Amino acid sequence: MPFIEALQPSTAAAVAQLATQLWPDTELVEMQTHYSDLLKQNQGTCFLLRTSSQFIGFIELSIRNDYVEGAEELPVAYIEGLYIDSDYRQKGLGQMLVTRAEQWAVQHGFKQLCSDVEMENQLSILFHEKAGFTEVARIVCFVKNLD
What we know:
Elements: E1 3-6, H1 12-22, H2 28-41, E2 44-50, E3 55-64, E4 76-84, H3 93-107, E5 113-114, H4 122-130
Parallel strand pairs: 4-5
Antiparallel strand pairs: 1-2, 2-3, 3-4
Helix pairs in contact: 1-2
């Protein structure tokens, strides 16, 4: 049965590798630096999911002090990313990670755990609903290049 462990300096490379699967536009070196910095800054945390032989998932949490759609008070604990290797999905492991995130948030005095999902990511939306999240808004974002 897979188990959860907190991010350590020795596991930053492993979570960075998983993060490049979730965010394929990022570079491995960039993610390694990000997770090393996360350990130093005390503005969030990360939990890794592993079997006896390999890392298969993670949940990254931040502390958001700025505006968060639907939040009743700030700061809030925020899920920045959640990833499970495709061979291990649909087994309740994502919920295990969310439960661990909830425990961390409560231990740190947060009243809410927030997250976001791209509108077209129906699987993630369904996962969040099953995990007990309530949808609070849908937005469309714009950008205008000023050359």
